[in-house]
Amino acid sequence: MGFSRKEYDYIIVGAGSAGCVLASKLSKDPCNRVLLLESGPANDNLMIHIPAGVYKAYLNPALNWNYDSSTEPGLQGRQVFTPRGKVLGGSSSINSMVYMRGHPLDYDGWASELNLPTWSYEKCLPYFKAGETYSEGEDPWRGGSGPLHVSSGSLQSPLFDAFLEAGETSGQGRSDDLNGYNPNGVSRLDATRYKGRRCSAADAHLSKTKNRENLDIVTGATVMKINLHLNKARSINVLYQNSFETLYSSKEIILSCGAINTPKLLMLSGIGPANHLKENDIVPIVNLPGVGKNLQDHATIILQYDCKKYLPIHGMNNNLKKLATGVQWLTSQTGLACTNVWEAGGLIKSNEEVNYPNIQYHFGPVGFEIINKSIRVKQGFVLHIDQLRPKSRGYLKLNKENIFGKPKLFFNYMTDINDIKEMSEGIEKARDIVRQKSFDEFRGDETTGIAEGIDKNNMNELITGLTETDYHPCGTCKMDNSNEGVVNEKLQVHGIENLRVIDGSIIPRIISANLNAPIQMIAHRAADYILDKPQLSPIKAQFSFEKS
């Protein structure tokens, strides 16, 4: 589908987790003419839809922006691979499908500590609920009739059983639902999965829009610039099928390109730090120093163990088993291909000084090795350790050699000593899980490369040598009313009319969990702001950590 007109009411740039939500909600009124633009292709690659095909999808260069960080000073000068979805559905089409909202105190912290009172958890919860259909049914915390299907882990494995039991015996706790009453401890994890298939943002929100004549969805279209007139966003320049088009908006232009491409597009349009724009021969139109600043991410360490006991899932390298598994999925959407692997995990405190969990686990019942950017399953199990609330902050800037190419990313992972301290504590907490009796029949050698009992200096060096990313960049156009802010509480860009940013870049302080669910919630709320609808009534649910 191409452009049916030259002027639309709403132009949405980026068809990821936020953009798909916005396109669906804004086009529900047939009077609104809506355009949704995506640089990448349609989401018709089979590996997108098979949950176990996640690594085939995310390593596919046709579906991925394939960013790398610049050399990271806190990681011994290493570059970190930073994949981002370049496909309808964005990163929700290539991620590991884990559905986590983050801790309620994250949002309450935005409200009380960052002076963003409209973003407390009780005001966000009704949008989380309205956006999901939870496989276990609706309750005070979970939704039962929303477009995004969310299911709890269903793969049966004695390794999952061992992990959950170890959470209890280690004293780290156990939860029935980390998105519900008790967001602390280990648990089976939820996934954006429905009837054996990935439920991406595109699947959830665009599937019911196919017959809407007022919505154009155009893939393979890259926006190069937002054109301003008297500090009002009026039009965009789009590269489509090797030619440039200028498209106009009568109401709003909405940027949902993600934490990397949204600040890049703003800067290319003359919106951002004036000095940096001048350095790149771009005329500053609106000086917003915060564009590209405040870059945050979840750093991760992977503990990998050999497994003494062979389990059926460990045999997935066998070509006949692969074929049989694939045929089973194609014919019935059942079997091992329905797992996203990371069906258990946890939220725990690394020390008693923190108010709420600062470490996240993702537990997988298989080992992995990457050979020539291809994933090979091993007889083992894996525990990801994410440091959830890093003190380190980074930034991005345009690449002076090619301002339209990949921007330069400086995450500054582990440049704050507290981040190293918490990661070290998280490693010991994870090891304590694996030391528990429930793992005795499975626990083989740890193959991570971090020997137990080493001194602090050597531990710090090993952490900085092994830390990677869990693929949750955010914060580069933060919601803030100070000089460093880019958008206000209704996600309108400061100093510019008819322009909003609605994606993970607006997150002022990173959420303590995976970001797909929060970003969709943000987009649901923002759509009501755009349409001038009243916000849903707050829900004050009870949580286990609250004092009676």
Q: Tell me the overall shape.
A: globular
Question: Main beta sheet, described?
Answer: 7 strands, mixed
What's the total number of strands? Answer: 28
The helix/strand class is alpha+beta
What's the CATH superfamily, by name? FAD/NAD(P)-binding domain
Main attributes of the structure:
seven-stranded mixed β-sheet; 24% helix; alpha+beta; FAD/NAD(P)-binding domain; 548 residues; 13 helices
Provide an overview of this structure.
The protein has a single domain, classed as FAD/NAD(P)-binding domain (3-Layer(bba) Sandwich), CATH 3.50.50.60. 24% of the residues lie in helices and 24% in strands. The model has no long low-confidence stretch (mean pLDDT 94). By secondary structure, the chain is α+β, with helices and mostly antiparallel strands. Strands 1, 2, 12, 13, 14, 15 and 28 form a seven-stranded mixed sheet that branches. Helix 5 packs across helix 13, helix 6 crosses helix 11 (417-435) and helix 11 crosses helix 12 (456-466).
List the helices and strands and how they pair.
Layout lengths: L6 E7 L3 H10 L7 E5 L7 H4 L4 H5 L8 E2 L12 E2 L15 E2 L4 H10 L7 H11 E3 L13 E5 L5 H12 L15 E4 L1 E2 L1 E2 L2 E2 L2 H6 L8 E5 L1 E9 L2 E9 L2 E13 L2 H11 L2 E2 L1 H6 L6 E2 L11 E9 L11 H14 L11 E5 L10 E6 L2 E5 L2 E5 L1 E8 L7 E3 L10 E3 L6 H19 L7 E4 L9 H11 L1 E2 L29 E3 L14 H15 L18
Parallel strand pairs: 1-2, 1-15, 2-12, 6-7, 15-28, 16-17
Antiparallel strand pairs: 3-4, 5-9, 7-9, 8-19, 10-11, 13-14, 14-15, 18-23, 18-26, 18-27, 19-20, 20-23, 21-22, 24-25
Helix pairs in contact: 1-13, 5-13, 6-11, 11-12
